[in-house]
Amino acid sequence: MEPSKIADTLNKEFPGEVIAVKEFRGQTGVTLKKDKILEIAGWLASTPELRFDYLRDVCGVDYRKIKTPRFEVVYNLYSMAHRHTIRLNVQVPDKEPIQSVVSVWKTADWHERECFDMYGIVFEGHPDLRRILMPEDWDGHPLRKDYPTAGPEGEEWGGFKEVLKKSEDFKKFGWYNKK
Predict the structure, then answer these.
(1) pTM across the whole model
(2) Domain residue limits, the chain
(3) Of 97, 102, 138, 167, which sits most exposed with the smallest number of CB within 10 A?
């Protein structure tokens, strides 16, 4: 099925949830409100003529000072059975959670954790929402547009010295030390 037809079908099935449909370079993106994302995801995965059984990716976007709401969560979906694809852009206001889609696609587990870790977007109902890339004691979310590029003068992350020590310890195992 053509992506534009999938977008039309989605709009008919969930009236009022589709904000916009954009086509660019052969890709179709459907911008949605956030409140029914779990229901929409379940419908896209279970409807026989669509059968989006593969979640390729989930990522976040920060539109600080450019657009409201501030964040979007982007879902790239693919149907292995029908070989069609669609992109869902879900608008998420700052400090508001969005429903987790892990119950629909298990692979969303780590993608949502990364989105949480990097942007601070909270996925309600996620089975294990904790940091995945940054240390547990890290302050802030590095991919937010308001994240400082340099820390306060004279301060450093508490685990920094430990990382430096491990780096020195591991150098003795490196290929670059062999002559």
Answers:
(1) 0.84
(2) 3-147
(3) 167
